[in-house]
Amino acid sequence: MTDKFNRKIEYARISVTDRCNLRCRYCMPENGVEKISHADILTYEEIIHVAKIFARLGIKKIRLTGGEPLLRKNICKLIAALKSIAGIEIVTLTTNGVLLKSFAQDLISAGIDGINLSLDTLDEKIFENLTRRNFFLKVIEGLQILLDLNFSNVKINCVPLRGVNDCDILKLVALAKNYPVKVRFIELMPIGCAENFCGVPTSEIFNLIEKNCGSLAQVEKNSLCGPAKYFKLKNFVGQIGFIDALKHKFCGDCNRIRLTAEGFLKPCLNFGTGLDVKNLLRSNFSDEEIFSAIEQTIYNKPREHLFNKKNNLRDGRKMYQVGG
Fold this sequence. Notes:
Elements: E1 11-15, H1 44-56, E2 61-65, H2 75-83, E3 90-95, H3 100-110, E4 114-118, H4 124-131, H5 136-148, E5 154-158, H6 169-178, E6 181-186, H7 202-213, E7 217-219, E8 229-232, E9 239-243, E10 256-259, E11 264-266, E12 275-276, H8 277-281, H9 287-299
Parallel strand pairs: 1-2, 1-10, 2-3, 3-4, 4-5, 5-6, 6-9
Antiparallel strand pairs: 7-8, 8-9, 10-11, 11-12
């Protein structure tokens, strides 16, 4: 369907848990993490129910997020069920990679179409400082097994932070030289703990790469690929991607909605407004009533995120609480 600004909404991010086995400094506090009770998280049956309604509304792609989605029991069964829904063409997953070595083959067998690996550095010490955990080698093992299995749609997500991991940008770029992966640099969004850090502008990263690796040639992409813009470098097997959320924000082309782990539908990442879908599901509303409520919420998706402006509609939760 289209919203009131004539944007075609085809892509839903669904968080399956707020739990995580890392404590990345720009995402979660070190201690005192507030966890949603198990009873308040959508069941798989409820997620599938909503996904079927999404499909009727024209959603074609679903990305599973967290927290860390691989912590949710039987996640591969959910993936297989979502893949079987008529109208859902693509099901992907974003993971920190800690458990990926154990799950890689099962994810592929379940039919996963793409895996995004959050990896902000290739330096073990920086990784431990940034994530507050010593799991670097587990993540690298997870990435390696995907490559060994010839899984063809691996994206590596890096959030460059000034004075923290920006020294590793070119090392991450080099992964795309030898491997068929998409290395993506995501501009830091000022949400929760991230406000304590200074991100590196996309333009600066772009110039750094061109200075050291040659000209970046833009690649055409499918409409379901999300907001990233992709580029090729000469003699590189993989690609480089950029998600420029602030200076060159992509709100005019945004095709996404988000469903949090506790079942709150967010038409925009930055705003706290949306729809309590879980309440509708658990209050015996009919499918047509739920369909209409979701349709209306999507239709009224905000024109832009307004990250750079203070307003009382802003969502005060941290990134892990709103689905990454």
